[in-house]
Amino acid sequence: MSSAEYIYSSCSVTAFLEQPLLHSRGTNGIGLDTVIALSSASPKYHVIIGARNLAKGETVLQDLQSKPTTQGTLSLLELDMTSDVSIAEATKKLEAEFNHLDVLINNAGICPESGDGLFPTRDTMRAMFETNVYGPTILTEALIPLLKRSSAPRVVNVSSTMGSIGAISDHGSEFAAVRLPGYRMSKAALNMLTAYQYFQLKGEGFRIWSFCPGYVVTDLGRDREDRVAQGIESSETSAQGLREIVEGKRDGEVGGFLGRRGDNYEW
Ligand SMILES: NC(=O)c1ccc[n+]([C@@H]2O[C@H](COP(=O)([O-])OP(=O)(O)OC[C@H]3O[C@@H](n4cnc5c(N)ncnc54)[C@H](OP(=O)(O)O)[C@@H]3O)[C@@H](O)[C@H]2O)c1
């Protein structure tokens, strides 16, 4: 491995455009806050920002590159997790530009459900599975050769305790009552992907986790104001949790379903 560490993270670009970065607390998605946390953590990190909208990504890239707190280097990669063509093109670009990849953070996710508990339509379920499950599956598979060239490849699938079958099996728990069936199924499937990937790849030195970023203020549920009014925490706290995994502080819990602040969830 060269002295640089190459990290790919998808980024919440839409949210960034709503307010200047200096006022990012509580207004940015988890992906963007993770890019900020990692690029300000160490000059040895090169953070590759994945964005499906290149114009939004460019704005983020330029803003971060001009911040005095940014220590590492950054680049931008166009990537739509629902498109095999986009994943193939992005993989080709990464292979042309980098000799290895150290960390892959599969953060992109959607939750187009209303919370009314009705079962989603086929189209809504398909949309969630395309982004939350099929995208991370196909992207990770495509990037295995580049990750294998790292001395310590790490993959983090950003999941949710909403996908925990253990948690919903406790019918008295706060988690059991949340009425987002399609989203919950998609995150349960993502957790199986993590467990499967880890079983298959641990022999080759891969470290793989699911990570729940916690219930934080972002645009995921289109209820930003409600979350702010409830005093829900900023997604910067989620980014710190992801940073700890990247820095190796959770290596002892490899293969697990982690949360912020040392949390470790049941599948
Ligand atoms: N917020 C929470 O409380 C919470 C709790 C548990 C888990 N999570 C998980 O955390 C992750 C990040 O969500 P968030 O809360 O930060 O929500 P968010 O603010 O809505 O950000 C989601 C990001 O995913 C990107 N994205 C969506 N579809 C994509 C696609 N097809 N290709 C590429 N990128 C795509 C969006 O891109 P654009 O910028 O182009 O829209 C956006 O940047 C998700 O996996 C979510 O399930 C969040």
UniProtKB/TrEMBL annotation:
Q: Which organism is it from?
A: Decorospora gaudefroyi
Name of the molecule in the record:
NAD(P)-binding protein
GO terms of molecular function? oxidoreductase activity
**GO cellular component term of the entry, any:** cytoplasm
The family database entries (InterPro entries) matched by this protein are listed as: Fungal_SecMetab_SDRs, NAD(P)-bd_dom_sf, SDR_fam
Q: Where are the transmembrane segments?
A: none
| Family of this protein | Belongs to the short-chain dehydrogenases/reductases (SDR) family.
Q: Which GO terms describe its biological process?
A: secondary metabolic process
